[in-house]
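Write out a record, fold above all:
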Amino acid sequence: MMLMEQTQVPSAALPVAEFKDHLRLGTGFGDDGVQDGVLETFLRAAMAAVEARTNKVLITRDYTYTLSAWRDLGAQGLPVAPVSAITAFVITDRLGVETTIDPAKYVLEQDMHRPRLVSTGFVLPQIPVAGQARIEFTAGFASVWGDLPADIAQAVMLLASHYYEHRHETAVGEATMPFGVNALLERYRNMRLFGGRL
């Protein structure tokens, strides 16, 4: 199984100005945005950490998920949420010949934690030996920062601030998130039940 991000969060979608205000950075004296690149880096790092912790995509992007076998013959869980659309479903054989599956043969079962591609018949199309299935989809809470849930946006700001304030530390500390960030993210975390089966 492999999940590949096909589009990235554009720089314009990142709240660099709001992050400056959050940090209470000084302004004036010909403010030329000299720190904008650094602040963007910390915001991206915090977003990546929050997404990894919750299996949720914040800013909407396109993904490709490939796998060589179904876990369930009638449905396949997707590794991130929330998923808004499945844009393509393709089966490839061992010679690289692709077969695009008719959208009438599957549906997206939306779920905040475990979205699934579900067969409209009894089973999903068979994946040939040495072949693979490719599912392309769009996932994310919002296309712009201002439309994110307030608590998850605040968690990113707090974590980015933590990274910024400790940017010169070289000692290895605890590999946990600050308490406030954990508290804000708790309701978004995906509980692993039944052996973590998707």
The first helix runs from residue 16 to 23.
